[in-house]
Amino acid sequence: MAEQQPRIRRASLPADVIALVRGDTGEPDQDRRDALAFARRYADWPGYGVSGFYAVTDEGIDDLASDLLQRFRLLRIYDPGRLVAEGLELLPTFRTPHVTLGFTDLDHGLAVLAAAVKERRPNPYHGR
């Protein structure tokens, strides 16, 4: 049985978040698959979502790369302000520093994700 809603933390995201980071598999339909899987898992959620992690410093991005995102060869780094300006919702979900980037229109949300990548960088910790 699917969980009805993702667990949203009571505490909001810190005001000084500088980046949202997602692991990148290099597969062109990764975001679409992730968003559709989210919608199936959380049937009562009004839309789609993909996972990411926030960082408040450049060192925080490095920490994410070495730990939570180590399995990814590439990292996608987003400006959180741009994502919000383009209509995505940033929700503090599950354990800190996890976030869900939520959207109601699948094609629009995926287009925003594709266009809003600020930087793609190799993960120096991948495979270690």
Give a verbal description of the structure.
Helix content is 29%, strand content 27%. It contains four helices and six strands, in the order E-H-E-H-E-H-E-E-H-E. The chain is an alpha+beta fold and 128 residues long. It has helices at 30-41, 58-66, 80-85, 106-115; strands at 19-24, 48-55, 74-78, 89-92, 98-103, 117-122. The protein has a six-stranded antiparallel sheet with strand order 4-5-2-1-3-6. The protein has one domain.
Work out the count of structural domains. Answer: 1
> What spatial form do the alpha-carbon principal axes imply?
globular
N→C terminal distance: 36 Å
The overall strand count is 6
Which range does the strand content fall in?
Answer: 25-35%
Main beta-sheet strand count, sense and barrel state:
6 strands, antiparallel
Strand order across the biggest sheet? 4-5-2-1-3-6
Radius of gyration: 14 Å
Number of helices: 4
Class by SSE composition: alpha+beta
Mean pLDDT: 94
How do the helices and strands follow one another from N- to C-terminus?
A: EHEHEHEEHE
Helix content: 25-40%
Enumerate the spans where pLDDT stays under 50 for 5 or more consecutive residues. Answer: none
Oligomer: single chain
Please tag this protein with its features.
128 residues; alpha+beta; 6-stranded antiparallel β-sheet; 4 helices; globular
List the helices and strands and how they pair.
Elements: E1 19-24, H1 30-41, E2 48-55, H2 58-66, E3 74-78, H3 80-85, E4 89-92, E5 98-103, H4 106-115, E6 117-122
Antiparallel strand pairs: 1-2, 1-3, 2-5, 3-6, 4-5
